[in-house]
Specification:
single chain; 380 residues; Aspartate Aminotransferase, domain 2; seven-stranded mixed beta sheet; three-stranded mixed beta sheet; 14 helices; globular
């Protein structure tokens, strides 16, 4: 049998194109900003993870340009950045956020070890678990009773790592970190938080989920990415120095991948310094998110309740989700449709996300478009 048969018989994408509701790979013709030009038309950008809007910050851009001029384009930048912003001893960097989870989990979880995951963790966490030599267990989303059941399955002689998103990327809700830490201590496990959507979003000055709960000293490993709030490319691990040194010397994705470019490192550092100097942008992001959440609810649009700048809107079926995404796109608002397997078949979503550089005027414009689109019969 030809291994390419699966490719030749795959028809989902072409079927959606034929119906005019294919939602992916729209051409972005301007820089990442609050409004963009996509396929020749202005769209309000409500589908970005550029939470603090720093991709257009002059001082962040200037840092990248200077690094490019000084060090060139190649992978000659150091992998070593400090972890002081997140109040940890040491940090190591990876080429991407996805690779960070692959590299951290596969290095820490070895033969005979266990790793326990929330079922709504990011795909990169699952792939990191698969790449490890340990046994993976899962628990229902934020279900602490199920987490304890799984912890009881771990032999006392085995090492155990609990991994959770800090802010869940689809639902926008925050992990029950105090309860997770308490159970981890009770059963002798370690805790890792994926803070890709938490850094710059919650916590003291945007320091993320552990800071939000006052648990920076209790969370053992914090992973994150440079590609969201830090407006760059790459990922990181912060932990105590001994653990970071072990990962640095035992993580195959770390050892056998090129480092981030000097410009990417400089941009991430400049963004980090900007957040430290301007913690008010984190507050502004929270205010705008609350404004949009209130506006959507006032217009009868069904959303998932949370307190972060990720606001998912229920559209329920895949067909309705793709249709609504297309209607919004044509009306001038860009959002992300979320379909199975990322959701159950009858709980599909439009994922909207917000930037601190938006303003109420733009959000009001977007709200009126949402109201107009959701007033239409989805079956018409």
């Amino acid at each position: 049998m030809d291994i390419f048969n699966k490719c030749y018989t795959y028809s989902v994408a072409n079927d959606l194109r034929a119906k005019g509701i294919y939602p992916y790979f729209h051409a972005l013709e301007t820089r990442q900003d609050t409004t963009v030009i996509m396929e020749g038309k202005r769209r309000i950008m409500l589908g970005s993870n550029n939470y603090l809007g720093l991709t257009t910050c002059p001082e962040v851009q200037e840092a990248g340009l200077k690094a490019l001029e000084q060090y060139g384009t190649g992978c000659s930048g150091s992998r070593f950045l400090n972890g002081t912003f997140l109040h940890k001893e040491a940090c190591c960097t990876f080429s991407t956020g996805f690779q960070s989870n692959l590299g951290i989990i596969s290095a820490i979880v070895g033969h005979g070890d266990y790793v326990i995951c929330d079922k709504e963790n990011h795909a990169s966490i699952y792939d990191g678990c698969k790449l490890s030599y340990g046994r993976m267990l899962t628990y229902g989303h934020s279900n602490m009773e199920e987490l304890e059941i799984q912890l009881k399955k771990v032999p006392e002689s085995a090492g155990c790592l609990i991994v959770t998103d800090g802010v869940f990327s689809m639902g926008g809700d925050i992990a029950k970190l105090p309860e997770i830490v308490k159970l981890a201590k009770q059963y002798g496990a370690r805790v890792m938080v994926d803070d890709a959507h938490g850094l710059g979003v919650i916590g003291d000055g945007g320091r993320g989920t552990a800071s939000y709960f006052g648990l920076e000293d209790e969370v053992d490993l914090i992973m994150g990415t440079f590609s969201k709030s830090l407006a760059s490319l790459g990922g990181y691990l912060v932990a105590n120095a001994t653990v970071v040194d072990f990962v640095r010397h035992n993580s195959r994705p770390f050892i056998f991948s090129a480092s981030i470019t000097p410009a990417s490192a400089a941009i991430a550092l400049a963004a980090l310094r900007h957040i430290e100097a301007h913690p008010e942008i984190v507050t502004r992001l929270s205010e705008l998110s609350a404004y949009m959440r209130k506006g959507l609810k006032a217009r009868g649009i069904p959303i998932i309740e949370a307190t972060t700048p990720i606001i998912p809107i229920y559209t329920y079926t895949p067909e309705a989700t793709l249709l609504r995404a297309r209607q919004l796109y044509e009306a001038g608002v860009y959002v992300n449709p979320v379909l199975p397997p990322a959701t159950p078949p009858d709980l599909c979503l439009l994922r909207t996300s917000y930037m601190a550089t938006l303003d109420e005027k733009l959000l009001d414009e977007a709200l009126e478009i949402f109201a107009e689109v959701f007033a239409k019969d989805v079956n018409a």
